[in-house]
Write a structure and sequence with these properties.
The protein has 198 residues and is an all-alpha fold. The protein folds into 2 domains: 55 residues, Homeodomain-like (Arc Repressor Mutant, subunit A), CATH 1.10.10.60; 131 residues, Tetracycline Repressor, domain 2. 73% of the residues lie in helices and 0% in strands. It has 10 helices and no strands. Helix 5 packs across helix 9 and helix 9 runs antiparallel to helix 10. The longest helix is centred in the first third of the chain and has 21 residues. Pfam families: TetR_N (PF00440). This is HTH tetR-type domain-containing protein. Keywords: DNA-binding, Transcription, Transcription regulation.
Length: 198
């Protein structure tokens, strides 16, 4: 989806402003100054900074999900290798954007309306994983008793919260170690054998 240049400039600036100041500390004027646009142009595209915030989260989620290759596999080994790669891509994206994700989580914890809007917002990664894991259950590659629509939210929350805990201050987890630990947890939740994820 391509946004008009001014709207995209506001969204891009807002990522930085919200990350630095949080949702509540950020002001519309901070965003427009960072974007290099007239203050009044903000209201051409957004009613409130909260609406802009939701657009920012949608863009961040799209960018993270866009890295995930979409494919259907004919064998369990290829599918499980894909799962490991998905975890690695997500861990990498979350490590690189740790401050932004912390800000998103803090905003959701501090505002019931934002939390509800984020929960209701379509997440392309959720859609991709739900579809893929449903197919895997049909193929018998994961326990058919695993409800993919239910477990995907838990898997995404697991990876987000784990990486957030590991990314404190200037510390960053080792990518290979973090991927192995989280992929192993995903395998357990999906009732796969840990060896089959590698």
């Amino acid at each position: 989806m391509t946004l008009p240049p001014t709207r995209q400039a506001l969204v891009d600036a807002a990522v930085d402003v919200f990350t630095e100041k949080g949702l509540h500390g950020a002001r519309v004027i901070d965003v427009t100054k960072r974007a290099g646009v007239a203050a009044g142009s903000f209201y051409t595209y957004f009613d409130t900074k909260e609406v802009l915030f939701l657009e920012v989260v949608e863009q961040v989620r799209r960018e993270l999900a866009a890295q995930v290759p979409r494919a259907r596999f004919s064998d369990a080994a290829s599918a499980r290798a894909w799962l490991y790669e998905v975890v690695r891509l997500q861990v990498t994206g979350l490590i690189e954007g740790a401050a932004t994700w912390r800000m998103i989580n803090a905003a959701a914890l501090g505002n019931v309306q934002i939390a509800t809007a984020l929960r209701d917002q379509a997440d392309p990664l959720t859609r991709t994983l739900t579809d893929e894991l449903g197919f895997w259950a049909e193929q018998g590659w994961i326990d058919p008793g695993v409800d993919s629509a239910v477990v995907v939210d838990a898997l995404i929350a697991l990876i987000e919260q784990t990486v957030q805990q590991w990314c404190t201050g200037s510390d960053r987890p080792d990518l290979d170690e973090a991927t192995a630990v989280i992929a192993g947890a995903w395998a357990s939740i999906l009732r796969m054998t840990p060896e089959s994820v590698r």
